């Protein structure tokens, strides 16, 4: 009985693979490919329908069995070449910071079930793919996969990371991978520093996932935390402004890596940004061309007055000599 059940399962999977390869098959064609009778094909089609696959049967000339779209996406069967092509495409996109979170989730699912015999081919092919998109920091696909898997499996991760002129080993509980227009970041709880941190993947070395599992802590919003860090926390000076313009208008004027823009009522928004000096961050907001108010820090208000006086002096007519 066990052998018969296994034979039936293998035959139904083979039938599903055939239906995914071509638009329409006749009953005799499927029976010939599978080495069974047309009656067995009809029974196996019924089994696929019971599993949620929308297999349609047409009558007359041009009729036959075809796999149609359904309400839910059923599992796909990929042969070796299709699996390699899919994984390499996802690796190339994710490594170049092009793919979003959905592509990375798909990649981790494929990684979990990819046969060992295909892994060396995937690595070899992914290394031959490059991107001509300017400004994107390259990321080792294996680093991306290791950290994505650690986030998925809720296991600790370790890596070398530059700090104070030295590369130090970091031990973290990985939470989310976040992609910006230029880089990939990891939001993780740093176990040695007892706090949430974001790390650039292109700066990591010797990345590894451990077997030690952890219970996820209450975490900040990953995308917002990383964006605020990139736009302001990394700079020696950061400031907050109330800008008298809609958030959508201001977001279109500044890249996400330069400032965090949050709606604040009708026609206004809060802008958080950082720079090497208070004057620099002030000028950035001034050049947006909207009325604004300084929210923080208090000393920035006095700098507004100083710069205003300098601008008035510069715009005054030259004295006659």
Automatic annotation (TrEMBL):
Keyword entries, A-Z: DNA-binding, Transcription, Transcription regulation
Residues in HTH deoR-type domain copies: 8-63
Matches recorded under InterPro entries: CBASS_pafABC_assoc_protein, DeoR_HTH, HTH_11, PafC-like, Tscrpt_reg_HTH_DeoR_CS, WCX_dom, WH-like_DNA-bd_sf, WH_DNA-bd_sf
Top-level taxonomic group: Bacteria
Transit peptide among keywords: no
Keyword Transcription regulation belongs to the record: yes
Protein name: YafY family protein
Organism: Nonomuraea ferruginea
Lineage of the organism: Bacteria, Bacillati, Actinomycetota, Actinomycetes, Streptosporangiales
